[in-house]
Design a protein that fits this description.
TIM Barrel, 3 domains
Length: about 450
């Protein structure tokens, strides 16, 4: 009889497609830590003693059976009817058959969500040219605050364990990462004379006397620049810099790109100092989103400052245009991107808290670009959801526990200005500290 290793799963499919390999390897190898082998030979499948799944139109009365939706066997994109299926109180989709081991097709669901299938087909955009968060299927189904993709992987594992008691999965550990976007390194300091003069004039015209007073105190050295929160950030993460990551905007100045010039020596020194302590990446400018040349120029600028290759990125304003944005990142040498998240909500835009490879639906192939989804952004909580620091922490704590339940990775997005603990951001430093405290506790519990 065939030896049955407890960490290998046999998958029968009529055809081994790029979509099949991507989806099953993500679920089993990446999330569950289980090796998968594929076969299109029904006799081999029936005779095998391995734990196994038949993912096809017809059951062989052997192994677990799930009637496959066609999406993983297709090559092109089509508008799809989303028929809902209730499972354990969750509104899911892609219904299967009575003899399937689940009433919905989790493989089709995972592929649809993680590849952002719906974003390729939608022509709707918000004021910044982004796919509207309110159009996200998970938001419409009330699932956007659950790592439903990871949950589906564990539901599949439970069914396999029931059928094959020898089937075992790898236990993951909860992880967390705090990321900081530096859109504007200082509020008042280190700006060119024309920019500073224009800002002072504008504040005077609009009678913003408090701002004028702040500017004067900062200029005289009697008050710290409100955006200069770097000492606080580094001190907070003093013992664990590997949990902290910075992204720098160094594009040319424009309507949406208003950082200090990359030629400013103080700014360059700041970048260099932070890069010596933490991982750093590029924050491609608003106008570079679909301009490969501009993206490559900005990446080269950062590499020249930190004297090392730049392989990580997050798009300014979270601008993603499928598939062009990710295709350009690949062409420029970026290997890891951290843009995947909601601009106006908190939760799981792609349904997962696990990093995954970008599958280019336009080319129908998996790529070498790894996508790291984040769950929470400071601006979304304060400006879009209108939350107080206390309410924001309650939501964050809930989402952290959701991630802990599947032992995924919890990623937050902050800006240096939101950690000033002054003005509109008063009290948010405490939230930042609470994330670290709770993150370390959850890491310890899962280790």
């Amino acid at each position: 009889m065939e030896k049955t290793p407890d960490n290998t799963l046999l998958i029968y499919v009529p055809e081994i497609t790029p979509r099949i390999k991507f989806t099953f390897e993500f679920i089993f190898q990446t999330i569950l830590g289980v090796g998968v082998v594929f076969t299109s030979d029904s006799n081999e499948f029936v005779q095998s003693g391995l734990p196994k799944i038949n993912y096809s139109p017809a059951s062989f009365s052997s192994g677990l059976f799930l009637k496959a939706q066609p999406i993983l066997f297709e090559k092109n994109l089509f508008e799809r009817e989303i028929a809902e299926v209730d499972y354990l109180g969750n509104r899911l989709f892609f219904p299967t058959s009575i003899d399937s081991f689940l009433p919905f097709d989790p493989f089709a669901c995972v592929f649809y969500l993680v590849t952002r299938y719906e974003e390729y087909l939608s022509e709707r955009t918000d004021e910044h040219g982004r796919f509207p968060d309110s159009e996200n299927l998970l938001f419409k189904l009330g699932l956007h605050q659950k790592p439903i993709v990871d949950q589906m992987a564990y539901w599949i594992a439970e069914k396999l364990s029931d059928k094959f008691p020898e089937f075992k999965i790898r236990k993951r550990t909860f992880q967390f990462l705090t990321t900081i976007d530096i859109d504007n390194a200082w509020a008042y300091k280190n700006k060119s004379l024309p920019i500073s003069a224009g800002a002072v004039l504008k504040a005077a015209i609009h009678l913003r006397f408090s701002e004028l007073n702040d500017r004067l105190l900062v200029a005289l050295g009697n008050r710290k620049d409100p955006y200069d929160s770097y000492d606080f950030i580094l001190e907070t993460y003093r013992e664990m810099p590997d949990h902290l990551q910075f992204f720098f905007l160094i594009g040319d100045r424009s309507q949406h790109d208003r950082n200090i010039s990359h030629t400013n020596q103080v700014f360059r020194q700041l970048i260099s100092n932070l890069a010596k302590v933490c991982t750093t990446g590029i924050h491609p400018s608003f106008s570079s989103n679909q301009e490969l040349g501009r993206l490559e120029m900005e990446k080269q600028r950062l590499e020249e400052i930190i004297h090392k290759p730049v392989t990580q990125s997050r798009q300014h304003f979270l601008r993603l245009s499928f598939p062009q944005t990710y295709q350009n990142l690949l062409k420029s040498g970026i290997t890891d991107d951290f843009t995947m998240g909601f601009a106006s909500f908190a939760g799981f835009r792609a349904g997962t808290c696990t990093a995954f490879p970008f599958f280019d639906l336009s080319q129908n192939q998996c790529t070498e670009l790894t996508i790291h989804p984040f769950q929470v952004m400071d601006v979304a909580m304060k400006n879009y959801l209108r939350m107080s620091p206390e309410d924001a922490w309650q939501l964050i704590e809930k989402l952290m526990q959701e991630v802990k339940n599947v032992n995924g990775t919890f990623i937050t997005l902050w800006h240096n200005e939101s950690l000033s603990n002054s003005g509109q951001w008063l009290g948010w430093q405490k939230v930042f500290e609470q994330i670290l405290e709770t993150g370390l506790k959850l890491e310890y519990e899962s280790s």
